[in-house]
Input
Amino acid sequence: MATPQTHLYDTALLDRFARVTPQTRLLDLGYYDPAGALWAAEHGAAVTALRPSIDLIVELDLAARHRRVRVDARLATSLGSSDWGSFDAAFLIAPFFLGNTPVRNAIDLVSQALTPAGTLLYQAHRRHGADTFMKYARERFERVDQVGIGTHQCRLYQATGPIPATASAATADPIEHVLTVRQTSIRLQLGAGVFGARGIDPGTTFLLQTAEIPAGVSVLDLGCGAGAIGIHLASEDRRRRVVMTDVSQAAVELASANAARNNLDR
Output
């Protein structure tokens, strides 16, 4: 049996149901597929595309150049507060194999990013997550409807009436997490919209357990998120010079706060 193409846009559905103009500011959360961002850019929209890794940014940049369109591709999974409430539309692909948390975080992000009249179009596979993702969307949007059926049992949903997280929820005291690897413990607070918002990623722990980093070297933590890797490496050996960077302002601020929490100089 063929593997469902849950991580790829069915652009025929976008042709039928998406409406963008040169005045449309669109946020694309396509994960592994550049097709949604390219489709919107080719139809004149000003596209900002968030991607969680460098290789996906490179792929999207190359595809945009080949199509001769402009896409603002960012290595990020969140937006700064200056972008909140500024997007007219958003595209989201919902590949089930990522698990529920990344999709929930993405829907939370979109509800914060859209204008009150903004629209989210997201695609999910009928048998792989569609019901769950609709439940999440209904927590953050006043109305969610299935608007189209595509190939390989994919479904296109439209969500309108975004309900951003309340100020009280956004400012609630975060839970402190303790990460202990190789007899070094650090304290971290995680934040909504920053990679690993709901827990320390197992891949982070595995990397710290297995990576052989010499003493006293300089380390660049690119795409630092909450700072778990960089802060642990600096705490493990105070002679190391660690620089943490991220295109997400929210991540930079959180990582800086976590560094101070562990008595590390900026």
About this structure: The chain has a mean pLDDT of 86. The chain is about 35% helix and 30% strand. The chain has two domains: 11-168, 173-261.
